[in-house]
């Protein structure tokens, strides 16, 4: 009974039309708010050299997938699809807490090759005060193991990941 009453009150209150229009300010002389959000910026600069079970030199291109988050200097994640510009694509996930994970159609199994948490990863991120996301600089020099065999990964990445506001 209580839940039903609470639901009725919640629905009734949410139907009110007395809200100000977005971008409007009821104060006299107030400037209208800008309707345009901050420009989104997403990029990964740098190249990674892969060796062992998969030999390639891969980098990120703007038409490939990218997700990243910078919570603090020691807590961040980068998930990116990278390519050699030809027919090799890799899905890379890097996090100090979880390590490195890499998959590719060029490997003999879909199982990811992985490193231990924090091993072979150095760097961090710098929150940029404009967004929750920030700028991440990371050096990778690690051995990944998996069912497809051992891989090595080396290189430096500079990641800018701003979703805009």
SSE blueprint and pairings:
Elements: H1 2-14, E1 41-45, E2 47-52, E3 56-59, E4 66-72, E5 75-83, E6 89-95, E7 99-104, E8 113-114, E9 121-127, E10 134-144, E11 151-162
Antiparallel strand pairs: 1-11, 2-3, 2-11, 4-5, 5-6, 6-7, 7-8, 9-10, 10-11
State the main characteristics:
165 residues; mainly beta; six-stranded antiparallel β-sheet; disordered N terminus
Task: Please compute the radius of gyration using only Cα atoms.
Answer: 23 Å
The general outline is globular
Largest sheet: 6 strands, antiparallel
The average pLDDT value, as a whole number, equals: 79
Sum this structure up briefly.
With 165 residues, the protein is mainly beta. The chain contains one helix and eleven strands.
Can you tell me about this structure?
It is a single chain. By secondary structure, the protein is mainly beta. The protein contains 1 helix and 11 strands; from the N terminus they run αβββββββββββ. The radius of gyration is 23 Å and the shape is globular. Mean pLDDT is 79; it is low at 1-27 and 30-35.
